Fold this protein.
Amino acid sequence: MSASHPSPSDLSDIVFTDWVERWLPKSWRPYARLCRLDRPIGTWLTLLPAIAALVQAAGGLPDLQRVIVFSLGALLMRGIGCTVNDMCDRNFDKHVERTRFRPLTSGQLSMKNAVWFLLGQLLVCGSLLFFLNEMSRWLALAVLPFVFIYPLCKRVTYWPQVVLGICFNWGMLMAWSDTQNHVPLAAIAMWLGAVLWQVGYDSIYAYVDVRDDRSLGLHSTAMRFGDQGKLWIGGFYLGTVALWAWGGYAMGLSWAYQAGMVAVAAHLAWQLKVFDIQRPDRNFMLFRANLWLGALLVVAALAGVLIR
């Protein structure tokens, strides 16, 4: 690796000079890092598609209580997923540059305490069910198996990112079920588009770990795509734009939504142009840039229902 690129040690996903280190009591820090409070990008990538779906389902600004419940749900479910993932992967993470300092694999936290923490998160998250309708409660329970099997998928399939996409974007379906008590075909198309989007951007992220994953016998879409990553990811992104464009059309959203889809397509095209499988530092940046893509989706949804 040339001197202009970061050394492998720079690829750790934990920064020990952040707000967690400065502001939280020492005994709390491993728990905050276990549920990724120090890295909120995943929470935003879970929440923003759900907010867009809430807007579309409401045909305008969604109910404030519902926004709060879904925001808390995104935060807690992302934390639960990360906790389960790190519990299952604790013996692998120590051999991966990006994950070697995580609390369980580095010994900062015991498995017993992680189990209690997981149960606590599940209990708090379960309390949110009281604020949802019956259909949404069943949908919330239906996603739990996917959350728990995701960490195991990388051991048996090259497509764990598909399972992750199902989990991350499940809130889009629940947004419709809780707002309208049904999930129309157009909403399912939007959700499928988000799953394809997730497979695309998480594949970019997975290229950071390819060398370590290969040595550990793990699998990912990045390993499946190999040198053709740009072509594969481009295909998933094209599917995303097509499904989101059709979904908006089928919902009767205005021209302003489709204008937003042009911006979404341009952003995804920029990602593909910048993407380089030999530049893990650049791929980190591209993964985080999807926060803006999620924000674009929300803006497009708002424009589509408010501008006629």
